[in-house]
User: Which sequence fits this backbone?
């Protein structure tokens, strides 16, 4: 990259946090217990008025910098696993003020809730029935799906009765009948393991750092990875699970679905942090899994637990539901929803792909079951993944012709995106790869990802055509350079990353929901070197 381009990218990074260009500046240094500069500590500035946080990393010299912070009162703290430091509360920052704060780290305890899912898979105690492998339904259900262990299990040492209450609540209320039904015998089996592994008498040590295997499971990041910036908004769910994703509408507002029994779609003003809630008028679990704004100003969303899609008019607050039934009376799927240029609403999930015509109020079904990712392509095409180990990439043309294309690796494709050149990119959750499909030549190319369990889930393409993914089991972000095949990994400021989708906004910021952490946020893609 030429010098002028680098300077422009750096300026953009500085000015794009969340506030105006004339905002305050926060700088300083971080030193380790030995007094040496410490690289890789998250410095977190939380606006105490609107709970917006800015997260940056200390560089090789231990330095950090936040610019364009809105005038407010902040609490500034450090997050570095295995270390602690006193926070700086009640920092009053004016719009044109520059403040320097230094941090001296002390050795602290590593908590089980600090681990990634992969680390927990290796270190948590096993039993005869539960080895935490991919063949273990407890692992694939409770560690890989809606959540993992860090926030729901490691945080509280429930006894047997406590775990039974929580597992039944998950089955009967949160899931609301969605997916395969958990039997009473399965409930008791899960309760037995959770009590053993996370109850008051657990055989695991108080800190995973006490285990000899721990050090070999700690992964490092390059100096380049310290350039990423995260801006987040507190967004804990009022009921059940937290926010699932965040996507921008034409007015710059963000739309967020609440899965489980949250039963609402929420609009966020990213400039002020103000929330406007649009709840469903009933208590039964709807399972709002996906929401997308349409060009006409309405917002479409799915009710996965009920096999319905719904349309919200934000101006009138009216919600209209449409039940997706097959000819034999079975429910069609309602997983991920997208709206194409003709105004059709497409949904993945269930036994078929579904297309809804708002004019005729009728569904059209296409014979492809088990679909997950769903994205509008070029020339009126719609693209899907089939979330099975041997699942294909599915294309439906504008005329309604369906084709299936099978990747070389049986990698369980999950999310996908279509770049401006028509190339289809997809994540291989089980295969640990990013796939590339050229519709013109009908050829695949696959890019292996770093780490012991890359597990790419959320997928996005930035303005520079870099491919971004979230590693669900390693709690990292990754950036793939399609021209070189080089992958750069970036740390994330929380354990249990739980990112489902990425959406690029009009300013080039990549938005996400981190369900387990109750956060909506965006990261600013660093310039390509």
Assistant:
């Amino acid at each position: 990259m030429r010098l002028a381009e680098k300077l422009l990218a750096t300026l953009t990074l500085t000015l794009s946090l969340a506030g105006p260009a004339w905002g305050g500046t926060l700088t300083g240094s971080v030193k380790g217990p030995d007094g040496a500069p410490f690289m890789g500590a998250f410095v977190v500035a939380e606006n105490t008025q609107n709970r917006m946080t800015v997260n940056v990393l200390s560089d090789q010299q231990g330095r950090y910098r936040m610019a364009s912070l809105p005038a407010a009162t902040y609490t500034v703290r450090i997050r570095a696993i295995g270390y602690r430091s006193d926070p700086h509360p009640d920092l009053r920052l004016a719009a044109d003020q520059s403040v320097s704060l230094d941090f001296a780290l002390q050795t602290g305890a590593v908590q089980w809730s600090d681990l990634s899912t992969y680390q927990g898979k290796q270190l948590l105690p096993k039993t005869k029935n539960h080895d935490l492998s991919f063949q273990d339904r407890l692992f694939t259900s409770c560690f890989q799906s809606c959540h993992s262990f860090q926030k729901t299990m490691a945080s509280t040492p429930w006894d047997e009765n406590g775990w039974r209450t929580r597992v039944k609540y998950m089955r009967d209320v949160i899931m609301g009948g969605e997916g395969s039904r958990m039997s009473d015998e399965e409930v008791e089996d899960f309760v037995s393991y959770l009590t053993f592994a996370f109850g008051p008498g657990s055989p695991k040590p108080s800190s995973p750092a006490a285990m000899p295997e721990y050090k070999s499971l700690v992964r490092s990041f390059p100096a380049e990875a310290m350039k990423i910036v995260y801006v987040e908004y507190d967004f804990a769910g009022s009921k059940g699970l937290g926010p699932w994703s965040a996507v921008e509408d034409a007015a710059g507002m963000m739309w967020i679905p609440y899965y489980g029994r949250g039963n609402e779609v929420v609009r966020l003003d990213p400039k002020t942090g103000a929330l406007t809630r649009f709840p469903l008028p009933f208590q039964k679990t709807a399972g709002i899994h996906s929401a997308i704004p349409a060009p006409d100003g309405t917002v479409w969303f799915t009710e996965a637990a009920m096999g319905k899609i719904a349309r919200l008019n934000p101006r009138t607050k009216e919600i209209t539901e449409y039940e997706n039934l097959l000819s034999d009376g079975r429910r069609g799927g309602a997983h991920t929803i997208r709206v194409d240029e003709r105004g059709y609403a497409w949904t993945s999930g269930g036994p078929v792909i579904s297309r809804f015509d708002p004019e005729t109020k009728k569904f059209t079904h296409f014979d492809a079951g088990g679909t997950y990712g769903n994205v509008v392509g070029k020339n009126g095409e719609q693209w899907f993944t089939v979330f099975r180990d041997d699942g294909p990439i599915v294309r439906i043309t504008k005329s309604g012709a369906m084709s299936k294309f099978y990747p070389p690796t049986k990698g369980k494709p999950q999310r996908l995106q279509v770049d401006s050149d028509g190339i289809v990119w997809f994540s291989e959750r089980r295969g640990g790869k990013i796939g590339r499909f050229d519709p013109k030549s009908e050829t695949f190319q696959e890019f292996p990802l770093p780490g012991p369990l890359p597990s790419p889930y959320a997928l996005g393409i930035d303005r520079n055509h870099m491919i971004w993914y979230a590693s669900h089991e390693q709690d990292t972000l990754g950036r793939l350079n399609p021209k070189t095949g080089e992958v750069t990994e970036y740390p994330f400021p929380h354990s249990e990353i739980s990112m489902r989708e990425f959406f690029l906004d009009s300013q080039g910021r990549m938005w996400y929901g981190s369900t387990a952490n109750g956060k909506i946020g965006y990261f600013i893609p660093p310039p390509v070197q």
Summary: The first strand starts at residue 24 and ends at 31.
